[in-house]
Automatic annotation (TrEMBL):
It comes from Polypterus senegalus (Senegal bichir). Keywords: Cytoplasm. This is PHLA3 protein. GO terms for biological process: positive regulation of apoptotic process. InterPro entries: PH-like_dom_sf, PH_domain, PHLA1/2/3. One of its GO terms (molecular function) is phosphatidylinositol phosphate binding.
Length: 135
């Protein structure tokens, strides 16, 4: 939704693979106004052609199951369709789970405000109370 796509946090996360062994794979991550982008950690940070997996806020339901063990934070991103994606990160500074949850809340609040404004303008137009100015 955001046109500026501002970077809120940058760094590394480990994502649990979906395979039989469920190995932890290190990912270079960018948290933006739109969601979380996951890159192969071996690629250069300046490589704009690197393929990213995008977890967009519009498809995210919640950040869940936060657990602290041996200096690591374990958490799950739950997508709107019910898919769960497990992550872990170092327990230093503001952990990723808190930043992602905050970004998700900001996104949902912005959506709610935009939706409310649209409904309000539609209501005003249908009742004839106040005409929107011609631009």
């Amino acid at each position: 939704m955001s046109s500026q796509n501002r970077v809120l946090k940058e760094g590394f996360l480990e994502k649990r693979s979906n395979g039989l062994l469920q190995l932890w794979k290190k990912k270079r991550c960018l948290l933006t106004d739109d969601g979380l982008r996951l890159y192969d950690w071996k690629r250069s940070g300046s490589d704009s052609s690197a393929k990213a997996k995008e977890l967009r806020f519009e498809r995210m339901a919640t950040v869940d199951c936060v657990e602290y063990k041996r200096g690591l934070v374990y958490f799950t991103v739950v997508m709107a369709g019910g898919q769960e994606i497990d992550f872990r990160c170092q327990q230093e500074g503001t952990p990723w789970n808190a930043e992602i949850a905050l970004g998700l809340v900001r996104f949902k609040n912005l959506l709610a405000v935009q939706s409310g404004r649209t409904r309000h303008l539609a209501h005003l137009g249908s009742t004839g109370e106040e005409e929107a100015p011609d631009l």
